[in-house]
């Protein structure tokens, strides 16, 4: 059980490089069992934030608490509660999986009597039993990624930070690593940095989006799904209808003509005008041939947040 209700707390983090503000007053927290997706375009400050959270870069301002321990005041004690997998796993490929993980156990100051158990547990949790005696350099990239995750969790850290963990993997390997991440989250907090938006949808409980060093969005995946709900309909008629006629229908906020007899109408999400459009079309004999919600992808929502919140 965690010693603190939040396994990680970032408070007012800022970092400058010369006159450039890489990260500006970023705050968030994460509890046990959560997977927090960390998104942002290139140059947004995402990598700088990850380096600060993992203790590889000191913030100019702010505080980082890992399981209630101040990372700046007690770096060794706090870092012992962190597991980190960079985008390129830090592997010694001339070693076998077991040899490498025994080395990692020693680096993490796991007592000698407990190292064998810690290595065995990491191997089992990451599905490495069948390859434990093979050289890491002879493994597929998917299995090498598993070894990288194993070294990040071997000391049972409170917080596991994963940077692009499925980058460069094939679809089968991606599915396996995603399943492993969800299993890890049952016992740890996981911060997942990724540019693959569907991965966020599949894995994360909460999402935060950073741009130009500032957090633009931090909320649950359910709230992000609400952004994805359609608030527009695509209509097509056999006869020509004026935009003014469509705008007169209850709950339609705006209409625009897209092509001959094809229109987009927008509405407030809580006031769907579908029934009013059907009734009006029947009364006026407009010969409605298409009524289809306009779906928003995760990419659409991501770009919309970037535009609106700046």
TrEMBL record:
Where does the ABC transporter domain start and stop, copy by copy? 8-237
Q: Which SMART domains match?
A: AAA
- Read off the PROSITE patterns from this record: ABC_TRANSPORTER_2 (PS50893)
Q: Which InterPro entries match?
A: AAA+_ATPase (IPR003593), ABC_transporter-like_ATP-bd (IPR003439), P-loop_NTPase (IPR027417)
CDD domains, per the entry: ABC_DR_subfamily_A
Q: To which protein family does this belong?
A: Belongs to the ABC transporter superfamily.
Q: Would you tell me the protein name for this molecule? A: ABC transporter ATP-binding protein
């Amino acid at each position: 059980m965690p010693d603190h209700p939040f396994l990680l707390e970032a408070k007012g983090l800022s970092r400058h490089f010369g006159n450039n503000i890489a990260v500006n007053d970023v705050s968030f927290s994460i509890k046990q069992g959560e997977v927090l997706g960390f998104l942002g375009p290139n140059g947004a400050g995402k990598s700088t934030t990850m380096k600060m959270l993992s203790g590889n870069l000191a913030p100019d301002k702010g505080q980082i608490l890992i399981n209630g321990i101040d990372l700046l005041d007690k770096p060794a004690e706090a870092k012992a509660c962190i597991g980190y997998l960079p985008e390129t796993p830090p592997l010694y490929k001339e070693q076998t999986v077991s040899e490498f993980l025994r080395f990692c156990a020693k680096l993490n100051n796991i007592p000698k009597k407990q190292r064998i158990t810690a290595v065995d547990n990491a191997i089992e949790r990451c599905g490495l039993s069948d390859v434990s005696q093979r050289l890491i350099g002879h493994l597929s990239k998917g299995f090498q990624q598993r070894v990288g995750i194993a070294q990040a969790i071997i000391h049972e850290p409170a917080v596991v930070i994963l940077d692009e963990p499925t980058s460069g993997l094939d679809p089968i390997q991606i599915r396996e690593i995603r399943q492993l991440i969800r299993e890890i989250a049952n016992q740890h907090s996981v911060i997942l940095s990724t540019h693959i938006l569907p991965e966020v949808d599949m894995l994360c409980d909460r999402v935060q989006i950073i741009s130009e060093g500032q957090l633009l969005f931090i909320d649950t995946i359910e709230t992000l799904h609400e952004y994805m709900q359609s608030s527009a309909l695509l209509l097509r008629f056999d006869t020509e209808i004026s935009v003014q006629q469509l705008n007169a229908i209850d709950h339609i906020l705006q209409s625009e003509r897209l092509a001959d007899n094809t229109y987009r109408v927008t509405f407030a999400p809580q006031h769907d005008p579908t029934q009013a459009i059907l009734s009006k079309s029947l009364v006026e004999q407009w010969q409605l041939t298409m009524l289809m919600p306009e779906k928003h992808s995760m990419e659409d929502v991501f770009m919309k947040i970037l535009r609106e919140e700046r």
